Amino acid sequence: MDERTAGTSSGGGSRSGRNLPAAIAVGLGLATLVLGSLYSPIKELFLLVMVGAVAVGVLELIKAFAIRDIKVPAVPVVAGLVAMQAGAYWGGPLWLLATFAIFAVVLMVWRMFSDGTEGYVRDASASVLTLFYPAMLTSFAALLLKAHDGEHRVVIFIAVTVASDIGGYIAGVLFGRHQMTAISPKKTWEGFAGSLIACTAVGGWLVVWLLGGQIWQGALIGALGALLATVGDLVESMIKRDLGIKDLGTILPGHGGLMDRLDSLVMTLVPAWLLMTLFFP
Predict the structure, then answer these.
(1) Using one digit for the tens of pLDDT, what is the confidence trace for 28-78?
(2) Residues of the chain with pLDDT > 90: what percent?
(3) Helix/strand/coil (H, E, C) string of 78-98?
(4) Dihedral over Cα of 20, 26, 30, 32: its sign
(5) Phi and psi of 150, rounded to 5°?
(6) 8 Å CB contact between 267 and 231
(7) Angle between helix 120-130 and 74-90 (nearest 10)
(8) Gyration radius (Cα) of the chain, Å
(9) Does the CA dihedral 270-41-84-110 come out positive or negative?
(10) Considering only 101-115, 129-143, 183-197, which range has the smallest mean pLDDT?
(11) E strand or H helix at 122, and its extent?
C-alpha cells in the first residue's frame, strides 16, 4: 500500500486520497471473515477463504495482463491454486513443490496448443508467473495452518503484514517527505520506518502471547515482514506501471482489487513460515 502524502480529497476521503470510512469498513469485514474461519470448529474453512480470495486475485491479474494482449488461461491456473493449497495442507512442502512443477508444465503445454507460435514465450512466462505469484506463494498459508497451533501462526503472519500497511500509511501521511523510489512515488522512507516500528512491535507482542516465544523472535519476524511487505508493494507497482493501470481491480471499496491487498501478504508469507518453523518446530 502506498503512503499518500499530499492533497485533501472529498467525499469521505482523507489527505491520502483514499475513502477511509469505506477502507476501514472493508478491513473490519475481512478481519471478521478471516478470524471467524480460522477459529471455527473446522479450521480448514480458512483454506476455502484463502483459495477464494487468491482466485479472485488471479483473475484480476489475468484480466490486467489481457490489456497488453498477454494471454494467461484462467482454468489451469485456478486449478493449480486449488491443488497446491490442498497439497501443502495435506501433503506438506514436497507436495506443494511437485504440484507447482506439474502445473507449470501443464501451462506451457496448454499454451502450445491454444494460440499458435507467436507470443508463446510471453504468454507462457506470464502464465507461470501467475501460477507462482500469487498462487504458489500464498499456498504457504496452508503450511502455516497445518501446524497444531496453525491458527495462531496465520494470525501472526497476517497481523504483522497488516501492521506494515497501517504503520506505513500513518507515518507516510503524517511525516512522509523523502521519496523511497520512483517505482512508487508516494512511498517514503518515513513510511517505511513506520512500517518497521509497527511490525516489530506487533510481531514481538503476538509471538510472546500466542506462541509463548521470545520477544526477539517476534521482533525478527516483524522486521523481516516490514521489509518484504514493502518489496511486495513495489513488485505489484512495477506490474501495474508496466501494464499502465492504477489498480488491479475495484472489488474492495477504499482498497482497490484483492491483489492490491494480497501484494504484501504474498511476499511476507514464505519467510514468516520459515522463521516460525525454525523457532517453533
Answers:
(1) 877 888 889 999 999 899 999 999 999 999 999 999 999 999 999 999 999
(2) 61
(3) HHHHHHHHHHHHHCCHHHHHH
(4) positive
(5) -60, -35
(6) yes
(7) 30
(8) 19
(9) negative
(10) 183-197
(11) helix 120-130
